[in-house]
UniProtKB/TrEMBL annotation:
<dbReference type="GO" id="GO:0042597">
    <property type="term" value="C:periplasmic space"/>
</dbReference>
<feature type="domain" description="SsuA/THI5-like">
    <location>
        <begin position="46"/>
        <end position="267"/>
    </location>
</feature>
<feature type="signal peptide">
    <location>
        <begin position="1"/>
        <end position="22"/>
    </location>
</feature>
<comment type="similarity">
    <text>Belongs to the bacterial solute-binding protein SsuA/TauA family.</text>
</comment>
<keyword id="KW-0732">Signal</keyword>
<dbReference type="Pfam" id="PF09084">
    <property type="entry name" value="NMT1"/>
</dbReference>
<dbReference type="InterPro" id="IPR015168">
    <property type="entry name" value="SsuA/THI5"/>
</dbReference>
<protein>
    <submittedName>
        <fullName>Nitrate ABC transporter substrate-binding protein</fullName>
    </submittedName>
</protein>
């Protein structure tokens, strides 16, 4: 069952976060008296390992009862975590980097999802997330993008940040590319009907579009970093500091979940229809990301540097050490 998220204004959530009194008392969880954690998730492929971990009993072994709540996106999850409505959330790493730079007390507690050469398609431009154009578009490659409009799901986020970085790596000036916001599900028709020049989409939409004749022209994640660290699970820093044993148990369970998902891609595909709108037939064909168990510090540094270079950071300094929790 999907649970509705009650909207919390970001400004109010920030004030709450800065004055947050962590609850839970730091008591160690146990199998006999499991500690319930509410976790905010997005219904996408990336969080499949967590659902598999619940099924495998990894969290129960650590005395943790997870209550997954599905939200439309990170914009809803971040304020819910900082206000302690959720104890843990899931977000792309650029959102977390920007949030910390603007004073939000957020802390990464476990790696979420990444890419790796082992998971890459034989088509170098078709990645887990890619810039895609209509099959008969005049845009044949990245050199044709200046002067054109590319749709992304959220502006000033991991999509356009890595597209700009990737274009620079290919010798293309990103300043000439216009970006516009459009939800992922709406991008399929927008590309096919040529209402936009190109779209940045992630699975399952890469498979849907290319299966209908669209062309992938840029794997922006891989061009930015072949092992790009894309997303993480995170908590409010005061709560994390108050509950180290609980977080250590969560991290151990997540590590087992990520390893299980990496070793059992068919199980990943099988669980997707249970919490997403991806049907079994599509799930059997889509590309999968990689599921790391360690934070990739060089990759996170690249995202910090690109976010700073593109003028997205606030006044607070951000380092990998300030972002990650050492469990």
């Amino acid at each position: 069952m999907l649970t509705r998220l009650r909207a919390i204004p970001l400004a109010a959530a920030t004030i709450l976060a800065l004055t947050l009194c962590a609850c839970g008392g730091g008591a160690a969880p146990s199998k006999d008296q499991p500690t319930k954690l509410t976790i905010g998730l997005i219904p996408i492929v990336d969080v499949a390992p967590l659902y598999l971990g619940i099924k495998q009993g990894y969290f129960k072994e650590e005395g943790i009862e997870l209550d997954p709540v599905l939200a439309a996106g990170g914009a809803a999850i971040v304020p819910a975590v900082t206000s302690n409505s959720y104890q843990i959330g899931f977000s792309n790493n650029v959102s977390l980097i920007i949030g910390v730079s603007k004073g939000l007390p957020l802390q990464m507690v476990s790696p979420g999802v990444a890419i790796s050469p082992a998971n890459r398609s034989s088509n170098a431009a078709a990645g887990y997330c890619s810039v895609v154009t209509a099959g008969d578009s005049a845009i044949k490659g990245t050199a044709d993008l200046p002067g054109k409009t590319v749709a992304v799901n959220t502006l000033n986020n991991i999509g356009d940040v890595t597209i700009r970085a990737a274009l620079e790596a290919e010798g293309v000036n990103p300043a000439g590319v216009r970006f516009t916001e459009l939800p992922f599900p709406d991008m399929v028709a927008a590309v096919e009907q040529k209402r936009i020049d190109a779209a940045w989409v992630c699975e399952p939409f890469v498979t849907k579009l290319t299966g209908n004749g669209a062309r992938a022209i840029l794997d922006n994640y891989a061009k930015t970093d072949p092992n790009l660290s894309v997303a993480s699970y995170f908590a409010a820093k005061p709560w994390a500091q108050k509950n180290p044993e609980l977080l250590a148990g969560f991290r151990r369970a997540m590590d087992k979940s990520m390893k299980f998902a990496s070793q059992n891609p068919d199980a990943v595909r099988a669980v997707l229809p249970e919490y997403t709108s991806i049907d079994p037939a599509t799930a059997s064909k889509i590309g999968l990301p990689s599921f790391p168990t360690d934070f990739n510090e060089p990759s996170l540094n690249k995202l910090i540097e690109q976010s700073k270079k593109q003028g997205l950071l606030g006044d607070k300094p951000v380092t990998v050490q300030s972002l990650t929790a050492k469990q």
